[in-house]
């Protein structure tokens, strides 16, 4: 393997322009789809826009980029040989280690010969007469396929915020989600980071350790939970290898796709106590005992807004205990956004970074960014002179990558138009009107609310079984019934309606709030991976209820 996860030169089998399956994307999902469907004897072609495989772990190579699910669980389960031979070094692996793992997978299962890198799929058009998809790429290829599997990722379309003057900046501009292989040296420089989601929170301590001065431009204060990090003890790794089958079973039987190591992430069930019934002394005693997790270790915090606000007060107390300067602690304290609204952020040394003399927070709640200038960032509070700006501003999540492909289904209907007023998909796997098109971790599946590798493997295997079913029964096409899809969307919305994800004051990328003009719908299924898998199994047991075969 070359540097930065680049493969050695590989011969790609580009000869045939007609295959059984086209897969778009070569991250966790696309790689496994290729392997699994190829094992079934299908011919598969993968197109990937990036220069290497790995998806998320190819693109997001910023300092501090790291997974927040334990490596032992954030890894493929489909091959026991793979899980026995691969040695994870870190509890929560860094980007480089996951990228190396995915390159190993590509080599070990001889995947590269069917992957076309640096090739973006521009359109996918269903030919009703032939029952085939026609896929066009930016390299001028046209391939026809019986099935099209969109493994395009939930967090793969970077957002460029529309800040005036962005291009006028004469210093270094970087983005976490397209971090270059060889980034300019930032040591000693005045650096501004815009964004305090997971990426901004992860990069902050890294930049703090090298910057002349680091300014963190914060629009919403992060709700960030300190997480473990460090090497895996050899006995933990050995035990995992011996017990992988059980670890994987537990993962699929859990809400969030993490079975054995829930405790590491603070995902264990909260105590049965109610914060609203506890005195101030009792609440503070819990902070003394449990630290950060005291904020959510109450049964009512996740379901009752008043209890949630009381939990948030304990969270603010932990910030005050961690950050030395009371004004800085106040600036870093979340406002009235509930705990559990946005995607939880896990951190190492984030709050501690603000105790360093070379780190400042620019609290944009006191005055927003007005524009980027040639020499820095102008806010309503004043001008900050900078040598470098790092955008950690997120993604057009879940629907972004699909909507950027011109997907045209039965009767010429376009996915973009169908989804313009609201997003619908059955089980997050298929969309009515788009026969033989599958989405991996699509909207309406647990996807981003669970360990995504587990959700991905489940989807790939479901799609494989569905194709087997079609081949054995002689069907040429499958798509959801409109009614079944509507019922599923109603169920997905109903479950989200009773959670903090859709509480008043909540804005998040789960709802599409970070993309101007995006329809405001809660996109993932919040009922739990375990419940979702049970539902998918029941659909199959009932003869693929809700799916129409012809
Ligand atoms: P991706 O890895 O996003 O791959 C999709 C690929 O499709 C991309 O390489 C893209 O270039 C390609 N593509 C898209 N459109 C086209 C097109 N039109 N033509 C050709 N190629 C195209 N999840 C977790 O469960 N735990 C974590 O700790 C975690 N950490 C994360 C950290 C970061 C920084 C980010 C951004 C995401 C994280 N995620 C995490 C979510 C992560 O995206 C998934 O876990 C997983 O890697 C997704 O794999 P995927 O193959 O579905 O999509
Ligand atoms: P994000 O969570 O969407 O955060 C984007 C940040 O940029 C937010 O703080 C947002 O503020 C801010 N922002 C956007 N536009 C802005 C503007 N014009 N001015 C000022 N601030 C602006 O994106 P992300 O941090 O890249 O994370 C996205 C997701 O990727 C995560 O939620 C997670 O699923 C995944 N991820 C995971 C990890 C991990 O630890 N494993 C690491 C990175 C990413 P507002 O909140 O006010 O909108």
What does this structure look like?
By secondary structure, the protein is of the alpha/beta class. The chain is built from 16 helices and 20 strands. The chain has helices spanning 28-39, 56-59, 80-85, 95-108, 198-208, 234-242, 244-252, 280-290, 305-322, 326-332, 350-353, 400-403, 415-418, 452-473, 482-497, 529-541, and strands spanning 18-24, 44-47, 115-116, 121-127, 132-137, 142-150, 172-175, 190-194, 213-218, 224-226, 345-347, 359-363, 369-372, 376-379, 382-385, 388-391, 406-408, 437-439, 478-480, 547-549. The strands form 5 sheets. Strands 1, 2, 3, 4, 5, 6, 17 and 18 form an 8-stranded mixed β-sheet that branches. A 5-stranded parallel β-sheet has the order 7-16-8-9-12. Strands 13-14-15 form a 3-stranded antiparallel β-sheet, with no helix packed on it. The two termini are 45 Å apart. NADP nicotinamide-adenine-dinucleotide phosphate binds at residues 66-68, 155, 161, 163, 194-200, 202, 217, 219-220, 343, 346, 364, 369, 392-395, 448, 509, 514. Residues 24-30, 47-50, 55-56, 58, 60, 65, 67-69, 74, 120-121, 151-156, 199, 401, 405, 440-441, 451-452, 456 line the site of flavin-adenine dinucleotide.
Quick structural summary:
By secondary structure, the chain is α/β, with parallel strands linked by helices. It has helices spanning 28-39, 56-59, 80-85, 95-108, 198-208, 234-242, 244-252, 280-290, 305-322, 326-332, 350-353, 400-403, 415-418, 452-473, 482-497, 529-541, and strands spanning 18-24, 44-47, 115-116, 121-127, 132-137, 142-150, 172-175, 190-194, 213-218, 224-226, 345-347, 359-363, 369-372, 376-379, 382-385, 388-391, 406-408, 437-439, 478-480, 547-549. It contains 16 helices and 20 strands.
